[in-house]
Amino acid sequence: MIERKKVYSLIGIAMKSRNVVSGEFSTEKAVKEHKADLVIVAEDASDNTKKKFTNMCTYYKVPIYIFGEKNELGHAIGKENRASLALLDKGLADAIERELKMMQ
Fold it and tell me: What's the CATH architecture for 2-103?
């Protein structure tokens, strides 16, 4: 449980430093423009959304994790529900990825 809080905390820090884009359109744009260092899709996102981002991230070689719920991801960045978000900072993306790997 502590690791989950740490991930949300890191996402919040990334948001404050303007290194997060959220929502399907912005996340997709960041991946396709090679700006995304990590993509997170909510566990309760639609299967279609998960498949779309998994395929896209595989193609563009961007790490992707299915993590958290829409309301939690939204709350972490101070917005409404978010099914997807992309991290635009390599250092923060790596730190979050380390935490996510420890939870698996």
Answer: 2-Layer Sandwich (3.30)
